[in-house]
Design brief:
Layout: E1 5-10, H1 12-20, H2 26-29, H3 36-44, H4 50-55, E2 79-83, H5 86-94, E3 112-114, E4 122-125, H6 127-137, H7 142-148, H8 151-156, H9 173-193, E5 197-202
Antiparallel strand pairs: 1-2, 1-5, 3-4, 4-5
Helix pairs in contact: 6-9
Length: about 200
């Protein structure tokens, strides 16, 4: 299946709650799974150490958390699926397979990492950071991306997935990135307009 990337909108209030109680990130990553947060909490629950298990001692008491579900408003938890285009888009935005200048490196870097946010991790960006990303994306258009496309360099730098040197008539890899970039740009602009932050995750 490969590695895909996605974004969700999240308010600053809920970002603060997620950072204080990381299992809540699953309310954004898997909003249709009512058990996702509970399962994540169970995985983080304190367990008895070796000697406690050996001699029957009690498990450590869990730290108290606010277990209320996320209180969301209209437009929050909207999502944007980038499929496998994320690394190609990152390269076209930054000119590098790794790193790059913020905030255009946001697909791979920046924000605050959320502990336990999936196999490949999740990061959150505040509303102010999201507004900065939207402003940085605003002047970038299709012509800009076409001018930065370098299939030889992308293949050499192992930009994921390995499709950049294919003939355009067989596999339009640049068009693939351009289409998903248009969705990403519109999504981030709308999130910024509504005053939301973002969750960026890989799965």
């Amino acid at each position: 299946m490969g590695i895909t990337a996605g974004l969700q909108t999240l308010s600053d209030d809920n970002i603060r709650r997620v950072l204080a109680d990381p299992p809540l990130i699953w309310a954004a990553l898997a909003p249709d799974d009512p058990e996702a947060v509970a399962l994540a909490r169970a995985e983080r629950a304190p367990r008895r150490g070796f000697f406690a298990r050996l001699f029957g001692g009690p498990a450590p008491a869990p730290e108290p958390v606010d277990e209320r579900p996320l209180q969301t408003v209209d437009g929050e938890l909207a999502d944007c699926d980038l499929d496998k285009s994320w690394h190609g888009i990152h390269y076209l935005l930054t000119g590098s397979a790794e790193g790059g200048a913020p905030p255009l490196d946001f697909l791979l870097d920046g924000g605050v990492a959320v502990e336990g946010g999936g196999e490949y991790g999740a990061r959150v960006f505040t509303a102010a950071q999201t507004a900065a990303i939207a402003a940085a994306l605003a002047p970038i258009d299709e012509a800009t991306l076409r001018g930065r496309f370098d299939p030889v360099a992308m293949t050499k730098q192992r930009v994921y997935p390995s499709i950049w040197d294919r003939a355009p008539e067989d596999d339009d890899s640049l068009g693939y990135c351009i289409d998903y970039f248009a969705q990403l740009k519109a999504f981030v602009a709308e999130a910024a307009r509504r005053g939301f932050g973002l969750v960026v995750s890989m799965s």
